[in-house]
Design a protein that fits this description.
five-stranded antiparallel sheet, 4 domains, 656 residues, disordered N terminus
């Protein structure tokens, strides 16, 4: 009490000398006394010495402490040069400050800036202040402020945060924030709690949890160090004993450990040993041993040892000494990240998590394969009609996909609503590519039926021409085909398994196409006539069906479906004049592998090609080009054993 009274008297005296502008400040306030107690440390603002001042403010329990830390972090805290009292201020101009009292936030007055020194903490000190502010932010009335506090803890957790988190749990009213606090409290318990039982309970509560934060907290606990001794210690922190020369402990690594611990002589490689012997050959001998006798490793070891005894080379271990040293010591791994019970609990939970991670990675790979298969199915379904049903090798099929994508781009230029533009673009792309397909069939294809080589060359030329026309109209730069906002983001199942909404939409669209195709082929007159012409064109013609007209409509229908596929693919991939070339090879592979002319075969072929490509990419993730090459080789081998594909079609397509 006397000490506090003396401090107040001194402060009042200093304020009186400093001027009336500061006299309005409550110099006896507890927060000001605390600042004065650590005044010199705060004024120097050294990261090495500032911690006690920040800790004292954070632990003071004073409501004004948060204001002090906030203003200090924002470089708004100033100190009076003569009195040493702290205020926070705002600059009116280059020479004038408006200062405020930390005790109650009241304005003290307007003063000359020359009388005050601004405290400018560096980034390191601001980080320390931010960590101290967390305990105040955790109980802030603003939910967003509490969220920011949790973000700060997740970025840089400290031991002091654990108690603050636990204290704030009972005061939390938001269910989402409460769940996040509880999870973070368990994670910090694993890292910082001194009670082993509490740590083990927290560890076991995360059994099967796939969160990355859980693995980040548990992995340090199971860290080990390789050690050696003459006998295996009986302490419980020993994980396992290792045998030199095994897969877990190579022989050279084991001996290097002995050398580092000064338990054995250094060794030398055979090449270095040979070089040392060659350098010391004198009169056809090394250390009195004839060179002709140095025809074995044991003989060379004897010669090298003789040189070492003479001081001409450094002493090193022979192979026999290395073996003897390895036999004389045991090697083992010791837990160093946590006490043994905690480490064992973490090891058990991590093992279960790793097994679950493997299953989820397989599920994620399966979703990726299914997504890619749906894209290939969309690209190939039109080709399944033109090539599978009609037997026309259409190398320009990819360009119909490109035309559909550019149709969607043009629609979005005039319809800014992305959802509406896609709804307009889908039927319009079908109409544009349907007409283009009909024109191509009438002008070129109809004259080349049953002439596959000429058809291939003609459609390849049309493909190049269409690409050049697209370049002349739209340029060489990729054009955006923007998806609606509700397709942004991904469906996140957990930290491992997720799939974008665009890929889900493409998968749904592929199913719709499958249903549309089956309906047209099985429930409409056009489908009946197409199947009749496919199976027996002469008999169909005798029944009044015009095969020429059916071929035209069939080719147009297949081209129209390719246009709709182009809109869907354009939402996922880049829209350029060459985009069709990216899918033509996979489309042909899908149709051929599945079975020419069968929609179910096309579906199975797309699934097989997509799954195979994703599987190979998973085995060789650094080289997608190599993955595609391996996939093509596999398809070639597959066709050798099953040339008609997974599902063979009877009729004209099969005969072709």
């Amino acid at each position: 009490m006397i000490r506090s009274l003396i401090a107040r008297c001194l402060a009042v005296t200093m304020l009186w000398c400093a001027g009336t502008g500061v006299m309005a400040q409550d110099v006896g306030a507890p927060i000001q006394e605390l600042l004065q107690e650590h005044g010199e440390i705060i004024a120097k603002s050294s990261r090495r010495t500032i911690a006690p001042a920040i800790d004292a403010l954070a632990a003071s329990g004073l409501p004004e402490a948060q204001v002090v830390l906030d203003r200090w972090q924002d470089k708004a805290m100033w100190r009076h040069e003569e009195s040493g009292l702290f205020v926070y201020a705002e600059e009116i101009d280059r020479d004038t400050l408006r200062i405020f009292d930390f005790a109650d936030g009241s304005e003290i007055g307007t003063v000359a800036e020359d009388d005050y020194k601004q405290l400018k903490p560096n980034s390191g000190i601001r980080g320390m202040i931010g960590a101290a502010l967390v305990q105040f932010q955790l109980t802030d009335s603003d939910p967003q402020e509490r969220e920011r506090a949790l973000d700060a803890i997740e970025r840089s957790a400290e031991e002091s945060h654990l108690a603050a988190l636990r204290a704030s749990l009972g005061m939390e009213s938001e269910p989402g924030i409460l769940a996040r606090k509880a999870r973070l409290e368990r994670l910090l318990t694993i890292r910082f709690d001194a009670d082993e039982a509490a740590r083990i309970t927290a560890i076991e509560s995360f059994a099967g949890d796939l969160g990355v934060d859980v693995r980040a907290a548990l992995n340090p606990l199971v860290s080990t160090r390789l050690e050696t001794a003459e006998a295996l210690p009986g302490t419980p922190d020993i994980l396992r004993a290792l045998k030199p020369g095994s897969e877990a402990l190579p022989r050279d690594e084991a001996y290097d450990l002995l050398v580092e611990a000064d338990l054995a002589k250094p060794r030398i490689s055979r090449a270095d040993k040979r070089a040392a012997l060659v350098e010391n050959i004198e009169g056809g001998a090394v250390a009195g041993i004839q060179v002709a006798t140095l025809d074995s490793e044991a003989a060379r070891d004897i010669a090298y040892a003789a040189l070492a005894d003479a001081g001409r080379v450094r002493p090193v271990a022979t192979e026999a000494e290395i073996d003897a040293a390895l036999d004389a010591f045991v090697f083992f791994e010791r837990y160093i990240g946590a006490p043994p019970p905690v480490a064992l609990a973490a090891e058990a939970v991590l093992t279960g998590i790793e097994n679950k991670v493997a299953l989820n990675q397989a599920a994620d790979l399966g979703l990726d394969a299914l997504s890619l298969a749906s894209i290939y199915f969309l690209a190939a379904i039109g080709l399944a009609i033109t090539f599978g049903v009609m037997g026309v090798i259409n190398m320009a099929h990819g360009e119909f996909i490109m035309m559909g994508a550019y149709t969607g781009y043009v629609v979005q230029l005039f319809v800014p609503d992305y959802t509406l533009s896609i709804l307009v673009a889908l039927p319009l792309a079908f109409a544009v590519t349907f007409l283009a397909g009909v024109a191509m069939e009438r002008l070129v294809i109809r004259y080349l039926y049953h002439r596959p080589l000429e058809t291939l060359l003609a459609t390849f030329g049309i493909s190049i021409a269409l690409q050049q026309i697209a370049k002349n109209i739209f340029g060489t730069q990729a054009r955006p085909l923007t998806s609606p906002g509700w397709l942004d983001g991904s469906w996140i199942i957990n930290d491992i398994v997720s799939i974008s909404y665009i890929r889900i939409a493409i998968f749904v669209l592929a199913l719709l196409f499958l249903g549309l195709f089956l309906f047209v082929m099985n429930r409409t007159r056009l489908g009946l006539e197409v199947r009749a012409v496919t199976q027996n064109p002469r008999m169909a013609a005798s029944m009044g069906i015009n095969p020429d007209r059916i071929n035209m409509l069939t080719f147009g229908f297949g081209s129209g479906i390719a246009g709709i596929a182009g809109v869907a693919i354009g939402l996922y991939a880049k829209v350029t004049s060459e985009m069709g070339a990216d899918y033509i090879v996979q489309s042909f592979m899908t149709v051929v592998v599945g079975g020419v002319g069968n929609i179910w075969g096309t579906l199975l072929g797309a699934t097989m090609v997509g799954g195979l490509q994703k599987g190979i990419e998973w085995l060789n993730p650094s080289n997608t080009l190599a993955a595609q090459t391996y996939m093509i080789l596999f398809i070639i081998l597959f066709i050798q054993f099953r040339p008609k594909g997974i599902i063979a079609l009877k009729g004209r397509a099969a005969e072709a």
